[in-house]
Amino acid sequence: MSTQVVGQRTAAESGHHDMVVLDNVVKYFTLSRTSLFHAPDAVHSVDGVSLRIEAGGVLGLVGESGSGKSTLARVILTLLRSTSGTVTIDGVDVTNLSQGAMRRVRRTAQMVFQDPHAAMDPRMTIGESMTSVLTQHGVGTRAERRDRVSLALSEVGLDDSYIDRYPGECSGGQLQRVGIARALLLDPKVLICDEPTSALDASVQARVLNLLDRIKDERELTMIMISHDLRVVRHVADRVAVMYLGQIVEVADREKLFTGASHPYTIALLAAGLESGRRHEATVVAAGEPPSPIHPPAGCRFNTRCPLATDRCREEMPELREVGADHEVRCHRWEEARGLLCADETAP
Amino acid sequence: MPDQLEIDNLTVSFGAEGAPPVLDGVSLGVAKGEVLAIVGESGSGKSMTAMSVMKLLPRGARMKAGGIRFDGVDILGADERTMNRIRGDRVSMLFQQPKRMLDPTATVGRQVAEPLRRYAGLSRHKAADRVIELLSDVGIAEPERRAKAYAHQLSGGIAQRVMIAMALAGEPELLIADEPTTALDVTVEVQVLRLIATKRAELGMSVLFISHDLGVVSSLADRIAVMYAGRIVEVGTTDQILRQPQHPYTRSLIKCATLARELDGSLFVIPGDVSSARSITKGCRFMPRCPVVEEAHLHDSCDAEEPPLSGCANGQVSRCWATIETRRSA
């Protein structure tokens, strides 16, 4: 581990400092035993994910439900212990920490949740909810805590009148701002947003995204934006990773991903977004739904829904390989896949 | 030819007498075989409109209307028995949370069979066969296995397909779909929208499609009605609404939906929020958030009187003084 830390420091000196480094992270959930004679099944939620996020960068994490993106977020936040692999945040390996050390680490990474009404205790006022975060981490005196709460609220554009309100008295948009203010209380370096706008109306969504944009710049935050909405990801992220059944299938610089997507799954996602946006028959649609993460298909995990799948795809799992500068794809037929998107773009 | 569904001057209110209504003078018609979408933010009254048609409003709601007619039948005056008949096989509904709508204690097969047994009077055996047909018809693989499954064993997409199979079992004349794809993944959303489009063509049914997402609606709807704070503010064909929106609220919604950027790179937002409409008793409800009030120098008329729904020859109508003014001077 010591060598890793040294490596981080040299990287920092050269100006490119990785804030979050994931190395082959695996998270399985073991299911209860169904037979005496077989080993219990496991859900392969996250299956060998390696990623780097530069300090100040925004990574968009895209995938369907069940792809493992929220599990990955919880592993990074040390809310779940990974089955194997390491997570390094700001140069500290957080994978095997004591309770106390983990508590300190949690201050550096905070989370904004999808449904703000579900993320707040309905019986506590907003002030109480927020103060309890500071109390738990033993921050400040009572008066200092009250000041910090009010400061955090003003940072997201809410006045002190919200301190005594209950979550039920707020709209979704207001409460999502409270959620963001609460995440900022402990001065985190990393902010993970799990579908922060998908429960909100279009008009409120833009406001929350603007707020996140501003806060990211002001606080020089590193962000992970989990979303199924590619428009949102395109707006906020500078790099995008696409997950499918626990694996990263494509990761690239934002513009490369949106203009030169090379994995059939990414292309299907882009096409689905286009189709629901205009009257337009997309050429690629992923058939059916993702298979069960308990028994993922052999070979490439996308082969059951892929229009390009061959026998090789059904037998041999493709590796994540570099296809251009800062562009990796997990597909045997990525060159042909690229053609699908071009054909699609020329359609009216 | 009269519309399949006619809603005339529908007003719904809750609470004390004189409290501002949640639906205020809504009139809409859905022609036979047409897909009409109602679009608006939460609280605009779009779901309330759908529930009124089915007479399934929450307790305490007071409904007043010039009339709601389905295929000529007066729904307002209909008794519970007539309503049950209509809800049974002539009008069906789809909801946002398909898994919550399914009974967790009964198999899929039993639930899909229920309306067949009750309304079509099929025998147990015949109903079971028909269930398999219906399930495979909505694109469910291995229908025999799925029929034996319980709601918690299904993914959201499959559960919504089951709901569609159930809704279409009686070959309804009208399908009311309230945000049927909001909880689904994008790739599955496209599949479900396509399925609804196919079934509508096959059965020639009308669809009342409710959504907050203009993008979703645009691929399916023939016409779009935009609602704001309990009022219809614009109605037109899908092309008219998307290409030549007249009401400033519709224009703002489109900008939000496409994540349009301002000059400084930030995303376009509509200032203020819906609650500002509550205090308005006589003027235009969108005025406190309206981007054109100032530039059109119409502040006085917008403040004094709510604009009527008015339109031009092509059938597109909107509720805005600025638009009326432009049309007059043109």
Describe the structure.
Chain A is of the alpha/beta class and 348 residues long. In chain A, 38% of the residues lie in helices and 21% in strands. Chain A has helices at 2-13, 69-76, 99-108, 126-136, 142-155, 172-184, 202-219, 230-236, 254-260, 264-277, 311-315, 334-346, and strands at residues 18-30, 42-54, 58-62, 84-89, 92-93, 109-112, 190-194, 222-227, 239-244, 247-253, 321-324, 327-329. In chain A, the strands form 2 sheets. In chain A, strands 6-7-8-3-9-10-12-11 form an 8-stranded mixed β-sheet, sandwiched between helices. In chain A, strands 2-1-4-5 form a 4-stranded antiparallel β-sheet. The termini of chain A are far apart. Residues 1-14, 278-283 and 343-348 of chain A have low confidence and may be disordered. Chain B is α/β, with parallel strands linked by helices. Helices cover 37% and strands 19% of the residues of chain B. In chain B, the strands form 2 sheets. In chain B, strands 7-8-9-3-10-11-13-12 form an 8-stranded mixed β-sheet, with helices on both faces. In chain B, strands 1, 2, 4, 5 and 6 form a 5-stranded antiparallel β-sheet that branches. In chain B, helix 7 (156-168) runs parallel beside helix 8. The longest helix of chain B has 18 residues, at 186-203. Chain B starts with a strand and ends with a helix. The model of chain B has no long low-confidence stretch (mean pLDDT 89). The A-B interface holds A 64-66, 171-173, 201-207, 209-210, 213, 228-232, 235, 268-269, 272-273, 275-280, 282, 285-286, 288-289 and B 41-42, 141, 155-158, 185-191, 193, 212-216, 218-219, 238, 252-253, 256-259, 266-270, 273, 275.
